[in-house]
Design brief:
Largest sheet: 7 strands, parallel
Order of helices and strands: EHEHEHEHEHEEHEEEHEEHEHHH
CATH topology of the domain at 3-152 and 185-213 and 273-287: Rossmann fold
Number of strands: 13
Strand content: 15-25%
CATH superfamily of the domain at 3-152 and 185-213 and 273-287: NAD(P)-binding Rossmann-like Domain
Helix content: 40-55%
């Protein structure tokens, strides 16, 4: 039985990957640092197939043993903090240490790092750190693959799960900026299918992929699509960025504020395929339209 280690496996993408890998018969190890629901993760597979493992650092001897005996390593672990030191520690430093370990491993066939679509086009602190991390991984590990997905949609995804309740309760819907920026959402099922094809392929000659669906929306168009799907008339209220930035800058210092400056930056630039990298076509996958995800979330 081949084994896969998934850092950040308790998140939305991780859980969907685990379900699919379990059905394929893989042994799955899920290292975690923050408290997670171990029992729920184990239920995605048969007895003993999924092993959550708590660790404090990559110097943990048992974790090093697991890494040295695994076939595939996937890192979904990331941070949306606005704190420079926290971002550097959790993204750049962590992946630098992880690639050092994987360089010494004789068993790891592939290392997959999840980044984000359009990262290289947004000049924020987080995106600068992620770009450095991508370059470091590709340079140090020949068997590495960097995946840049767009906004991921599906049943219980974070994006729609936060939007739909607002649309159901409120007549007025806040819209960051003028809503003209474009994005190209992708279905979780297609992302999972791509990752599965990548780990099962005997050789992947490209190291960087961008994943997005077939449709491009402005945020205003997408919000209207949600309103139409619930058959409700809604008024979209544009909030200019010069007003939002200082508000978010103050609010993000408070606990439980819904958005921070790094997340707000997503609404300032287009989040679409650059056309410079390979995508689903590499594995001959045709991504599906996202309307089905909206209907499921409703």
């Amino acid at each position: 039985m081949k084994s896969i280690i998934i850092f950040g496996g308790s998140g939305y993408v991780g859980k969907n990957l685990i379900r699919t890998f379990a059905k394929k018969g893989y042994k799955i190890i899920v290292p975690y640092q923050k408290q997670t629901n171990e029992a729920k993760l184990r239920l995605f597979g048969s007895v003993g197939q999924i092993i959550p493992y708590q660790f404090n650092s990559l110097k943990n001897e048992k974790l090093l043993t697991l890494l040295n005996n695994a076939d595939i390593c996937i890192n979904l672990k990331t941070s949306w903090s606005s704190n420079k030191e926290e971002l550097k520690s959790s993204i750049l430093d962590f992946n630098s240490q992880l690639t050092d370990v994987l360089e010494q491993s004789n068993s790891i066939k592939k290392f997959i790092f999840f980044s984000g679509l359009g990262t290289e086009r947004r000049s924020t602190l987080r995106n600068e750190i992620i770009s450095k991390t991508e370059n470091l991984i590709i340079k140090k590990l020949k068997n590495s693959v960097v995946i840049r997905p767009s906004v991921i949609l599906g049943n219980n995804d974070q994006f729609l799960s936060s939007l739909v309740p607002i649309f159901k309760m409120s007549f007025f819907i806040p819209l960051f900026g003028d809503g003209s920026k474009k994005f190209q959402p992708v279905l979780i099922d297609d992302v999972v299918k791509f990752v599965l094809k990548t780990i099962e392929a005997s050789n992947v000659s490209m190291q960087l992929f961008e994943l997005a669906g077939p449709e491009i929306f402005t945020y205003r168009q997408f919000y209207n699509l949600i309103a139409d799907a619930i058959n409700k008339k809604r008024v979209l209220v544009s909030t200019p960025m010069p007003i939002m930035k200082p508000v978010v800058g103050i609010g993000e210092k408070l606990p439980f504020f819904p958005i921070n400056s790094e997340q707000l930056s997503l609404f300032e630039t287009d989040n679409t395929l650059s056309g410079n990298e390979f995508s689903f076509d590499y594995h001959k996958i045709s991504p599906k339209r996202v309307i089905s995800a909206i209907k499921k979330s409703l």
